[in-house]
Amino acid sequence: MNDRHFLAFDIGAESGRAIVGTLAGGRIALREVHRFPNGPLSLFGSLHWDVYALFKELKRGLAACASEFPPVDSLGVDTWGVDFGLLAADGSLLGLPFAYRDPRNIPAMEAFLAKVPAERLYERTGIQFMPFNSIFQLQALAARNAPILAAADRLLFMPDLLTYFLSGVQINETTISSTSQMIDPRTRDWAGDLMAEAGIAPSLVGQPIEPGNLVGSLHPKVARETGMRTVAVAATAGHDTAAAVAAVPAQGGRWAYISSGTWSLVGIETPRPLITPRTRALNFTNESGVGGSIRFLKNVAGMWLVQGCRRLWNARSPIGYDDLKRLAEAAPAFRSFVDPDAPEFLNPEDMPEAVRGFCLRTGQTPPEGQGPIIRCVLESLALKYRAVLDDLASVAPEPIDRIHIIGGGSQNWVLNRFTADATGRTVIAGPVEATALGNILGQALALGLVGSLEEARRLVAGSFKLETYEPRPSAAWDEAYARFRQIVARAAAAKGDTA
Questions:
Q1: Using CA of residue 208, residue 445, residue 128, residue 345, what is the dihedral sign?
Q2: Do residues 485 and 390 both lie within one domain?
Q3: 229 and 310 co-located in one domain
Q4: Which domain holds residue 317?
Q5: Total-model pTM
């Protein structure tokens, strides 16, 4: 078989990349051809995504690919979840998409749940309650009688919107649509009754398209502008977590995954949704995966806390992530803990001060200095993973023996070691570029070059080096876990008292 080439646009909340994947000799090789920063734009007190700047970077990626590589067979886009753009009837974009950390979402969630009981919403969608879910964002627009909503003819989630800019084709891909809390995971179709409750016309969305399908070709104007030839455009796994999970190099069962990046997505893969009063009480989500699978998981505010600390420190004096890992590794153990999902960590101006403030309000001695602060965050993340995995194991259809950590966070050897020791489970770290790999594998499925999800995962396992961390039993971690649970409960109770 001749070498086959694929272009993956993998865009996160902090940065984006254009990565070419080459399938040759039963292995996949990756090469980054373009990287660019990303981040929300503050405009009149609201946070937005500059989607036009993102499209400009995609065209730069296309131009770099055209100049440096043989013609690619296809391309696809993945991004973070929940955010969307609205199009007018003529196909023009109605304003910049809102960013999920915009503060308007919290009261919108409360207003929606006053109309639709949480039990009903969860039973219909199986989705974790988070204030930035798309249905609450739409509720925020409807509650303000926003002109943009009245003028809207079509809703496209972020990867669908960028796919539209590239191809001129409007789609709603299933994995990204499922993050909206508007999809019924049993039918993998829209819950129109819930959309109506939010004041949203079901005609705003199209029939969801499963990942692994071709949807069109690169628009001729974009091709001419970037020097690309006509190339197929695929509906790959548009949600970055769905793409990453598709690239987990696991075989058989009894495994969980942690897709580790700005967010940590902790979960298992199941053939059908798990929707019960127990899973609702535990706030687990059922999102669509590749091959008709369900990603049963919970969101944890992952490396966001580390990124926030580094961003502030780096502005004062340059410091890298590896420097922070070494400082954390050398810092004293088990001095203080935070709940990574506490509200004060959603978007603070000063993340290190937010960490210290949490410790103070929960009666702990706050960490001083970069190493102790990062150690506090990483130990807290490992203990949070243990708490989520304990809950997960209580509802999972089979035991969980090992954890696959994938994505950029899999490079954090300190957190990998902490996770193995804290959870008492074997940790297998890698691949780092799981999201881009899953994007590429979705394209290969669309072209019929890979026959199944299982075959795709064998391909990943044979192409990349993985690191294994065996757990080291320790009473100190068990004691730390007990303290962590008490601190998290104390913080939640204090917030409830002041609400």
A1: negative
A2: yes
A3: no
A4: 250-430+466-499
A5: 0.91
C-alpha 395 chain-centroid distance: 22
pLDDT tens for 447-460 read 999 999 999 999 99
The answer, yes or no, to whether residue 270 has pLDDT greater than 60, is: yes
Q: Pairing mode, if any, of strands 467-469 and 426-429?
A: antiparallel
232 has a pLDDT exceeding 90: yes
4 Cβ neighbours under 8 A, 6+ residues apart: 22, 23, 24, 73, 444, 447, 449
Q: What is the pLDDT of residue 499?
A: 30
User: Between 198 and 29, whose confidence is greater?
Assistant: 29
User: Nearest-CA neighbor of 351 among 362, 335, 367, 328?
Assistant: 367
- Quick one: how far is CA 493 from the chain centroid? 28
User: Both 227 and 258 in a single domain?
Assistant: no
Per-residue model confidence (pLDDT) at position 103: 83
pLDDT higher than threshold 60 for residue 203: yes
Q: What SS3 state is found at 460? A: helix
- DSSP designation for 178: G
Q: Does some domain include residue 245?
A: no
The answer on 218 and 270 residing in a single domain is no
Reported as a single tens digit per residue, the pLDDT across 353-368 is 999 999 999 999 999 9
| Coil/strand/helix, residue 36 | strand
Residue 226 and residue 291 in one domain: no
Q: What is the mean pLDDT of residues 61-75?
A: 96
- Let me know: does 298 contact 344? Beta carbons within 8 Å: no
Q: How many domains does the chain have?
A: 2
Residue 498 in this model has a pLDDT that exceeds 50: no
Strands 264-270 and 285-288 turn out to be unpaired
Residue 446, in any domain of the structure: no
Does residue 184 sit within a domain?
Answer: yes
The DSSP secondary structure of 74-92, one letter per residue, reads EEEEEB-SS-EEEE-TTS-
Spatial distance between the Cα atoms of 33 and 101, rounded to a whole number of angstroms:
29
DSSP class of residue 173 equals: B
DSSP SS3 for 24: strand
For tokens 């298992």, the residue is 268
Backbone angles phi, psi at 254, to 5 degrees: 65, 35
For the chain, helix (H) and strand (E) counts, in that order, are: 19, 19
Task: Give catalytic residues, as residue numbers.
Answer: 240
Residues 217 and 272 in one domain: no
Specify if 481 maps to a domain: yes
Scored b (16 or more CB within 10 A) or e, 358-393 reads: bbeebebebbeebbbbbbbbbbbbbbbbbbbbebbe
Instruction: Tell me the CATH number at 341.
Output: 3.30.420.40
CA distances from 411 to 205, 297, 298, 405, 466 (A): 38, 21, 21, 9, 11
